[in-house]
Design a protein that fits this description.
Number of domains: 1
Strand order of the largest sheet: 1-2-3-4-5-6-7-8-9-10
CATH class: Mainly Beta
Structural class: mainly beta
Number of strands: 10
Largest sheet: 10 strands, antiparallel, barrel
Radius of gyration: 15 Å
Shape: globular
CATH topology: Lipocalin
Strand content: over 45%
Length: 141
């Protein structure tokens, strides 16, 4: 899908806009992502979904430079190893990471909106059909 794009800049500083604590709601669920300040060639984070006192989903995430290229890496309980998504597009506080070999998702999108909110979207084939999940966050710290 994005293979024809020019190689994105492998500068971790372009993700400074992600730093901080982000929260949102999706129906009766609370969502969050926390991104720590950039240290060297990595920005670490964590994300999750709660319903009341129950944790429905949790992951450790990071964006890092590997062999001169940027990757979004997600470590999810139940997966035998972290999954890496290569940066394929980055411009104007909007990014696309892709791993077409992953079961779901195959693409991870982040966009910081003009009002300061953050949109995150995952998409790809799930059981042979296109599927996506979208999350909207407001910065709280």
């Amino acid at each position: 899908m994005f293979t024809g794009c020019s190689k994105p800049n492998a500068d971790i500083a372009q993700f400074k806009w992600l730093e901080g604590k982000w929260t949102g709601t999706e129906g009766d669920m609370e969502t969050f992502e926390i991104w720590q300040p950039i240290k060297g060639n990595i920005i670490k984070g964590a994300g999750g979904v709660f319903s009341g006192e129950d944790t429905l989903f949790a992951e450790n995430i990071k964006i890092e430079i590997i062999d001169g290229e940027l990757f979004y890496v997600a470590a999810v309980p139940g997966n035998p190893a972290p999954v890496s998504f290569k940066l394929v597009k980055s411009e104007n506080n909007s990014t696309v990471f892709e791993n077409l070999k992953n079961d779901f998702p195959q693409r991870v999108f982040y966009t910081k909106n003009a009002d300061g909110s953050l949109n995150a979207r995952i998409e790809g084939l799930r059981s042979g059909k296109e599927s996506k999940q979208e999350f909207t966050f407001k910065k709280v710290k």
